[in-house]
Design brief:
Shape: globular
Number of strands: 14
Radius of gyration: 19 Å
CATH topology of the largest domain: Rossmann fold
Largest sheet: 7 strands, mixed
Distance between the termini: 42 Å
Helix content: 40-55%
Strand content: 15-25%
Strand order of the largest sheet: 3-2-4-5-7-6-12
CATH architecture of the largest domain: 3-Layer(aba) Sandwich
Length: about 325
Amino acid sequence: MTTPQITPKLHDCRDAFTATLERLAADDAQIVAVCNDSVGSSKLVNFKARWPERLINVGIAEQDMVGVGAGLANGGLLPFVCGAAPFLTGRALEQIKADIAYSNANVKLIGISSGMAYGELGPTHHSIEDFAWTRVLPNLPVIAPCDSIETAAAVEWAASYNGPAFLRLSRVGVPDLLPAGHKFELGKANLLRDGDAVTLIANGTLTHRMLKAAEILAGRGIEARVLNMATVRPIDVDAVVSAARQTGAILTAEEHSVYGGLGSAIAEVVVAEAPVPMKLLGVPGIFAPTGSAEFLLDEFGMAPAAVADAAQVLISRKAA
């Protein structure tokens, strides 16, 4: 008799973001929200109902939105600037660079519907370059929480952090992986599963897929380490070096181009500190086509079984 598989509940990380933001705003009148005609998609409807005077909707004008956020921060407020990730980072990159990062403004940038979450809206709405664009900017931590628990913890951290930050949130439901009460630490990876044959590293919507891949590998007699690397900048150098030295191979997966993202950040550490075979999974330097996020991730080789197969090939390179 087989034991039925229990499907874990999936959570929209935007819900955790707004629930935490409202809880913090109830105790801190300095917290305000700024959005680009995205009250609904940013899930700020209830925030607006509770504090209409503390929500600024600039319309579809992302450059203005970031500049308004910087001005509010200069006036002593604590702005959370929310918008669709492809347009927040793409249209307003100069303002993020000059008004936020260079000025070290205390603005929290919230990129909503990141990666390929917009799915059927296609290449213009996929946000698969935002890690590359933002992680090169000084003063700007770049964070992609893996579940609703880490999202809430990262929002709490961001509110207490004196400086800019970019939080990348998807609208695609994910299961909770971290324990209740988890505290977010900037630049610290989370060990979700230990192993000595290979290390699987991901963040955001890919972390739970890496855990499933590790389970598949375990069924083949291969123990894989799984790291949740929510912070892309600053990267957890110690965790990467330990993974390289202790497991001898690293596979990364991300809802982003393979150029300039999480895999690239990890490879920069590996090549300098502990060279080992690596495999970077992601969008292979093309405009991702139209399709649901789940479909596209599978198409680009990030289904759990495909990840497990890629890991096995990578392990074989250790002995070569």
